[in-house]
Automatic annotation (TrEMBL):
This is Macrolide transporter ATP-binding /permease protein. The chain crosses the membrane at residues 21-43, 270-299, 320-352, 364-383. GO terms for molecular function: ATP binding; transmembrane transporter activity. GO terms for cellular component: plasma membrane. Residues 281-393 form the ABC3 transporter permease C-terminal domain. It comes from Gloeobacter kilaueensis (strain ATCC BAA-2537 / CCAP 1431/1 / ULC 316 / JS1). Residues 21-241 form the MacB-like periplasmic core domain.
Amino acid sequence: MNWLENLKLAAGALWANRLRSVLTMIGLVIGIGAVILVVALGVGAQRFVSDQFAGLGTNVIGIFNAGPRTRGRQPLTLADIEAVRTQASSVRRVAPIAVGQGKINWGDHKSQGQLQGVPFNISQIIRINFSQGRFFTPAEIDNRKRVVILGELLSRKLFGYENPVGKTVMINDNQMTVVGVTKRSFFGSWIDLDRGMLVPLSVALESLVASDSPFGKKVDGFIVESKPGVSSAEMTFEVRNLLRLRHNVTDREDFLIANAQDVVNLFNGVALGVTVVLGLTAAISLVVSGIGIMNIMLVSVTERTREIGLRKALGATEEVILTQFVIEAVLLSLVGGVIGMAWGIAAALGIANISPLKPEVTTWSILLAVVVSAGTGLFFGVFPARRAARLDPIVALRTE
């Protein structure tokens, strides 16, 4: 008996008990679909994180006023920024940031958010996307123009869906003109582009944030971009040593250095870990469905004992009987696997259409699903098939 005849026999046997076959496949359908969906979500999450953090740049680090040193802490100052800019050979651009709290009013609408003074070159270091308006011009920065860029969530809170560009708002009792609204960033950045507000650094230091200190004009941090061909690790080493020297640090530093690539790697690691855990959890249903397939095949062997005895009496070998029942189990699991793949892919596409997270169904996950579904049928179908193949034809024919 060739493979095609065996396949027809297997399909006929499954169709004759189609309700039982469908119920048996449900676990496999759920398991395969869940594995494909979880893998797609994991891959999509890693891509989403990488895209969100791409604006930070992998050759960028942030230095901020913080650290374990509590006594004799020296704030970061404009003099520190100038020293890094002129003395660190690995540095291409430096952008200081001054941070404070801003109370903002527009008519009867009031709110507050993080106020951040930034220079023009910050837009050359990190990516700032706009839903409306634009970034500051060099002339506005140099001439200390009182202009402001609002985060999308802050703008929505004040103006609703009205375009705020060109309107005048009051920030800490200072009149400011809105020139732009940043597009929402789901993972943020070195600066708050969602709920905060950006103003020219010179304006912030002059009248909007407290910047005086015994060491000079202080800032809350600065962003540093390395020169082409210089790794962030090399730049971090040079900048750290320069600041330690300037701040007279001998043990614990009074500043923190954050590496954008480390943040990306951390999120990717978390996403991969969650994907693996959820994937293994979904795979448990495959084991359960495999046991169900084995159970149903054992029932089928019992019900068809006389048929098996008759076929063996007519000359069917153990290999033929074994092949027939294995094909039935594999066919059952393959059909369930195909249906599971279909709903897993459909669910991934549905999520991609309604959320910013874009699940990615990969070729290897589909191939894995096919192999797993076929392997499940083969592994759990062998035992019932061997039992059927080893039946004594005389005993089988006497079975009622």
